[in-house]
Amino acid sequence: MYSLLGPDEIRQLAPSGHYIALRIGFAFPMEEVNALPEPWVAHYTTQRFMLVDPVVRWAYGNTGTCRWSALDQDDPRRVIAQAQTFGLRYGVVISVMDSGNNAQRSFASFARNDREYTDLEVKLLHAYVIRRHNDTAPPTNLTRAELQALGMVKDGKRLKEIAFELRVSEGAVKQRLKNAKLKLGAKTSTQAAALANQYGLI
Fold this sequence. Notes:
Largest sheet: 5 strands, antiparallel
Shape: elongated
Distance between the termini: 36 Å
Strand order of the largest sheet: 2-1-5-4-3
Helix content: 40-55%
Number of strands: 5
Radius of gyration: 21 Å
Structural class: alpha+beta
Order of helices and strands: HEEHHEHEEHHHHH
Number of helices: 9
């Protein structure tokens, strides 16, 4: 039940805006949703708040949930206080992470102007972020042969070259790429290769 929130419910729960970063790799998230007010985004960017934002710092150092009001003691640049002047008076930050060696993190921040988030709302949003994180997890069923073919597509090789280097028929390469596209939900081999690269699979 908790994970069934959709875009409309998120807008109702975060009327002042929200930000979601899914599957953060070395530097960038695989998917990003920035539904924060444009004036705040412009001010935040101009002031270079990302490096000192206590919400972001908490998201990278923890998992779970935290209301913004619990973070304002550790905010020398007064990021949270400035956010309030843009209508982001109350907020919650949520951070989730895989287990294992190649664990990836996703985090989100939700804001409203009228009151603190209730415990139930925090649970609903936490479940929503977990679901989005899991939905964007890399597939685990790609074969070595499929990944090999995708790696060659990423390197700009043509079908004939791939078949020649792998010592298989062009038909076999086509089948591997077709299977890989299906597993990755991609329309083209190039898109499949780009996704596999984003996931760190090739």
